[in-house]
Amino acid sequence: MTTFPHAAFLASAGRSAEFPPAGPPEIAFLGRSNVGKSSAINALTGRRRLAFASKTPGRTQTVNFYDLGEPGRLVDLPGYGYARVPKSERAKWESLVTGYLQERATLAGVVVVMDARHPLTPQDERLLAWLEPLSLRSLALLTKADKLSRAERGRALAHTRRAVADAILFSSVSGEGVLEARERLEQWLLEAGSGSPK
What is the mean pLDDT of the chain? Predict the structure, then answer.
């Protein structure tokens, strides 16, 4: 199955009432602001500007849905941990993300995107603890891996796998980890579409 190159923008929702009707299985991308979520989605789909990647933290303020056709959808959730926005705005984002993760029946798994240079920040650890009771498939993508030495890469991967068993070194610049991650997520969608357990 090679569904990712067929990805197309579906919808952008600033509140849960704007979510598109539930359909095929969905995989959600979570991560701190400016950690490379949008770039990861673009790398996985082989599209340069499917998801808007910005150097400005906090740019993604909506839940963005990308259609892969019948097999499923990718969902880009607002980044967390960026302080330079009003508390009221952060609260709105958190409510939006929490509502999606807890209530979306078609959610097949989550990809937690972390900077390979700074994995498992306290904010990441709080997110993982919050996700644990949901019993979702989880994959950690360690982005910007091209910026690390071989020794640093090994340490980052080992450190992350203590918290998330399934972790992949990833670079949207070099392409490292793209094929492996894509195959993993396509398998999730295939299993979810066939009714296999999470």
Answer: 88
